[in-house]
Amino acid sequence: MRTFIIGDIHGCYRELSDLVEKFGPTDKDQIYSVGDVINRGPDSGRCIKLLRDLKAKVVMGNHEHWYLNSFPFTKKTKLNENFRKLEIEDHLRWMYDLPYFIETEKFIVVHAGFDPRKRIEENEKDTLVSLRMLEDLDRPWFEEYKGRKHIYFGHWGKLGLYYGQNVTGLDTGCVYGKQLSGLIVEENKLIQVKAKKAYCPIS
Hints:
Elements: E1 3-6, H1 13-23, E2 30-33, H2 44-53, E3 57-58, H3 62-70, H4 78-86, H5 92-96, E4 101-103, E5 107-110, H6 125-130, E6 133-134, E7 139-140, E8 150-153, E9 162-164, E10 167-169, E11 179-184, E12 189-194
Parallel strand pairs: 1-2, 2-3, 5-8, 8-10
Antiparallel strand pairs: 1-11, 4-5, 6-7, 9-10, 11-12
């Protein structure tokens, strides 16, 4: 069995399909996603369907979190207009069931990060999908992490691919025209595909 963890997808279906093909999953392999499967890119619905067909384990990203908090998009905002255009209501139940982190015997998958001065389950949901910096220390959250389990996270496109002390950041900015990345954990092997185009400016 191989474990394959994919960085932020943001609706980039062609890139996701190419990445999965390069990985070549078998029935014995397990795919994980760090979240932000949806929004900004061109085809959120097909990305969700592919991951569901692959029985991938997906954690809640901030875009899924915002989508659910905004649904049914009654307020007239630019974000709600974007969400409405995604046409992914058929996957609403699937999104509601996404965990905010997944912990195994050897590693943890979380979208953004957590304050490691607390247990991960003691962190607020908003923290798990949005944290980058520990504001009181003015440093990235992972610089305070001293745990034994490896943390795989996304959410930080400007940071890009990041290897730290027991942490790996996998958001390599595909939707911004860069790359989509996945890591085979047992082999410590990185697989990447180039973005077909820049779908939106980096934020």
